[in-house]
Each structure stands twice: as C-alpha cells, then as structure tokens.
Design goal:
The chain is mainly beta and 321 residues long. The protein has one domain: Neuraminidase (6 Propeller), CATH 2.120.10. It is built from no helices and 26 strands. It has a four-stranded antiparallel beta sheet with strand order 2-25-24-23, with no helix packed on it. The two termini are 33 Å apart.
C-alpha cells in the first residue's frame, strides 16, 4: 500500500463545508479518544481507517469511517509505562508496517501491524546523522523512505532494506538555506510520484519545488517565492503537498488558511477549500494546517492543527455537468 496518484478530473470540486472526522468540531483539545491535541500528520488507508499523529497527546490514533472516536492508539500518551513517544508528528501505513516519525527522538520507527513494539529504521543522534526538528516523511511504492530535514535544508532517501545506521542519500537541497533552485529553506511535506520525482513544500521560500531523479536543482511548480498579498499566485508557508496523476498540485496556504490546487505549468492556483482568507472554527474555515491527504475517492482530509481536529471536504465529481 502506498499513496497512489489519483486520476482526478480538472472540473472536480469539493464541498464548501467540511465534516469533522477526528477531534471535536468545536476545536476543544483533550486526551480522550474523541479528542485531539495539536494534531500533525495523517494517513488514510485503503480500508478507510484514518491514522492521525496526535502530537500533543504523544500518540497515533486510529479512527474508523463514520466515527470520530479512536478505536485504537499507538503510544501510551504518558511519560511512564508502556511505549512512549517523544513528539510524534507524522504517520504512514503500508501493507505490513505503520511508520511513525518521532521528532522528539529524531527517528523514524516502523511498527509491524498488530505488534506492540517498533523497530527503528532511521535516526539515532548518537550513531548516525540526525535530522533535528524534522516533521515530515514519505514512503514510495518501493518502500524507500524520504525524510525532510528542516534544519539541514535537505530531503534524504533511505533504501527500503535499510536498518538503523544508514545515512541515506540527499535527493533535494544542498544543505544551505537559500532561495536558489538548488536550495531549500525549512522543507516540510514531501510527495514522491511513481517516477520517483520528489515534490517538496519549501515552506519558508513559499513555493513547491519539483526535483527529478538525480537532479542537482529543483523547479518551482507552485508559488512565486513571495508571501505579501492575498493573491492566488502566491503560497504562504506551505506545509504539505499532494500530486495527482495529472500533475495537479494540492497544497496549503497557511497565511490565508486555505487549500490550493495548481494546474500543470500554471502561474496561478485555485482555492478549493476554506476560501475566505480568514481563520476560524466554522465548517468552511481552518486555522494552521499541518497536513493534507486525499482518499481513494478524491475527498480532501485536512489536519486542522490549531483547531485540534481533522476536517473532510467531500469530493463532488459531477461539477459543471
């Protein structure tokens, strides 16, 4: 199981009002099974189960369709007893494993599904290169692991058969903060397509960068590197990126609290969700967004972090007909 690229029509659109599928619609945080606290990454499995990195509660929660209450958790959420995370910020699910990024421990772990203890597959600051403050990773169709290094200004690929101690290979960024085509500044979300092309949410450069295999520089495919006006030609502090099979790019504008879609070779995006430009708790509003995802039908899931909830914008496929 990997993130298959959906074939979405250019005329598809999404419901104006979202439904809360995890956490409380009111934005109230908490540690009960129907609450979240500063949630970060998320993943939707083929069976419809939603996995959420419940960062403030130091756990991963699993939520079935048509429910907002977790049916299971990974991590005790406690500082003593059982298995505990330092600061869990992202999650990815394959047929065999649940991968978890623990920023507090600066490592990626993989949990055998239905097991109770993980294996560390990347990261150990005492033995190999650490990636301080990394919050995002991706697993491609061949189970290679990609990790964005917010402080190293790079994206690193670790082979699928890696064990702890493999430094990986840099596939994006030159390790120096900057706005040049070979540089990244605080890279966040990653998406890797079937050709192993890497898309990076280059957050502090306000752009999405596309890196071909073995390329020494990236190409800007969304945003113009600026964040100073309410314009659809700009993306402010993007944290997440998803790409469909037609190379439409989905990303987050965190200054105007909205989700944008960019057509291939376009200089301007279109707003597809939460388009008021203001933050809020209403069903058509968002606050700081940490991650987005599309399910197998094309519905949009948003980790609405500062509102302590996950919002679902239902796909509408017959737009214009």
């Amino acid at each position: 199981m990997y993130v298959a690229q959906l074939n979405l029509s250019s005329t598809v659109h999404w419901s104006k009002n979202a439904v809360t599928v995890a956490g409380s619609w009111s934005g109230q945080d908490g540690s009960s099974l129907n609450k979240l606290y500063l949630n970060s990454g998320l993943y939707i499995a083929d069976d419809g189960i939603l996995y959420v990195a419940d960062t403030g509660n130091r756990r991963i929660v699993l939520i079935k369709p048509n429910s907002t209450t977790a049916v299971a958790t990974i991590g005790t959420g406690s500082i003593s007893g059982g298995f505990e995370f330092g600061s869990v910020v992202d999650v990815f699910v394959s047929k065999t494993y649940i991968y978890v990024l623990d920023r507090g421990a600066e490592q990626v772990q993989k949990w055998l599904i239905n097991a109770s203890n993980p294996n560390t597959v990347y990261g150990n600051p005492q033995s190999i290169i650490s990636i301080p403050q990394s919050s995002y990773f991706f697993v491609d169709k061949d189970n290679n692991l990609y990790v964005s290094g917010s402080y190293t200004a790079t994206v690193i690929r670790i082979p699928s058969d890696s064990s702890n101690g493999n430094n990986g290979v840099v596939v994006a960024g030159n390790g120096i903060y900057g706005s040049g085509p070979e540089q990244l500044t605080y890279p966040c979300g990653i998406f890797v397509d079937d050709a192993r092309t890497v898309y990076v949410a280059d957050s502090n450069n306000h752009r999405i960068q596309k890196w071909a295999v073995e390329a020494s520089f990236g190409v800007t495919v969304a945003g113009n590197g600026m964040c100073n006006i309410n314009s659809l030609s700009q993306i402010c502090n993007p944290t997440s990126v998803v790409v469909d099979s037609n190379q439409y790019i989905f990303t987050v504008d965190n200054y105007f609290f909205r989700i944008l879609r960019w057509a291939p070779n376009s200089n301007v995006g279109e707003c597809i969700a939460a388009c008021s430009g203001n933050e809020g708790l209403q069903s058509d509003h968002l606050s700081h967004v940490s991650a987005i995802a599309l399910d197998g039908h094309g519905s949009l899931y948003v980790s609405d972090q500062d509102n302590n909830r996950v919002q679902k914008f239902q796909v509408i496929v017959n737009f214009g007909k």
